[in-house]
Design brief:
heterodimer; A: 171 residues; mainly alpha; two-stranded antiparallel sheet; globular; B: 108 residues; alpha+beta; Beta Polymerase, domain 2; 5-stranded mixed sheet; 5 strands
Chain lengths: 171, 108
């Protein structure tokens, strides 16, 4: 295997492990911050597994957390994926993925480096009133939207499909 | 998708389709068009979230499209910076040889 293939396999392996952890942190037993922390890590590593095969420089991969939105945007125009997801027309796929971008963006912004000192699932932050808040005490309405809205359910389903069928779809 | 039996035909079909699908796509840059083993595209779209880097995604060949594709989406400002060598391209990519397509230069 080449160095790039080794990196890809490692990112994919870790994304799958993070997904397993996400699925084990059930709603009733775990605070939303832990579940979202795992989910953000899944999406970042999944995107990077895809990027590392595209000649993207390794320093751009390790130094950036902003890859998932680009990943969803780029996927929206891919014909092979359209067939794999049984969508009839490219325009249907484009529209479907476009509807997921807002949630994808919110997941991406959970990374502390992108959260601009605001709510994130890992570190405490100060709100505009000067209160210091811990992620464990924050409700993270995003989790509810991921689980209860059609777009959220769809996005989680796609993440699972991409993880399970990565070799078939992207290698 | 027809006329995908050579890289030029395949790339131009793909570029045309992407212009059709994405109204905000401004330009597409086909990097190193003489390369016959894969198609590398920079898609310039002002709606793309700026990252200050070029994130290129790989798509394997498939039956109807027998060429590997590497596609990155960037903003117009990022393209200007690439031309000024302020943002590096992915490994092995250069702007020494490229073809630029706009909505006006492809038949839609």
């Amino acid at each position: 295997m080449t160095a790039g293939q080794n990196w890809q396999a490692a990112f994919l392996r870790q994304a799958r492990s993070d997904w397993e952890a996400y699925q084990k942190t059930t709603e009733l037993e775990w605070p939303n911050c832990q579940r979202l922390h795992y989910l953000q890590m899944v999406t970042e590593k999944l995107s990077k597994a895809f990027l590392v095969a595209g000649d993207t420089k390794l320093e751009n991969l390790t130094g950036s957390h902003a890859a998932f939105v680009k990943f969803i945007r780029i996927l929206s125009g891919n014909r092979n994926l359209q067939r794999a997801l049984s969508m009839k027309k490219p325009s249907q796929q484009k529209a479907k993925f476009k509807a997921l971008l807002q949630l994808a963006r919110e997941i991406e912004l959970l990374a502390p480096a992108l959260a601009q000192g605001g709510p994130n699932p890992e570190y405490p932050w100060e709100d505009p009133s000067g209160n210091i808040l811990a992620p464990a005490d924050h409700s993270f309405p995003l989790m509810q939207r991921l689980q209860k809205t059609p777009q959220g359910i769809q996005l989680l389903k796609y993440i699972e499909i991409f993880l399970k069928r990565f070799e078939e779809l992207f290698m | 998708m027809s006329q995908n039996h050579n890289p030029a035909g395949a790339a131009e079909n793909l570029i045309q389709e992407h212009f059709e699908l994405e109204p905000s796509l401004e330009r597409v840059i086909w990097i190193n068009p003489n390369k016959t083993t894969e198609i590398r595209l920079l898609e310039i779209n002002p709606e793309s979230p700026p990252t200050g880097s070029v994130l290129s995604f790989y798509f394997p060949p498939y039956e109807e499209f027998p060429y590997a594709m590497k596609i990155a989406e960037i903003t117009p400002e990022e393209w200007e910076k690439i031309l000024r060598h302020e943002i590096p391209l992915p490994n092995g990519w250069t702007v020494d040889n490229y073809k630029a397509y706009s909505r006006e230069t492809v038949t839609i």
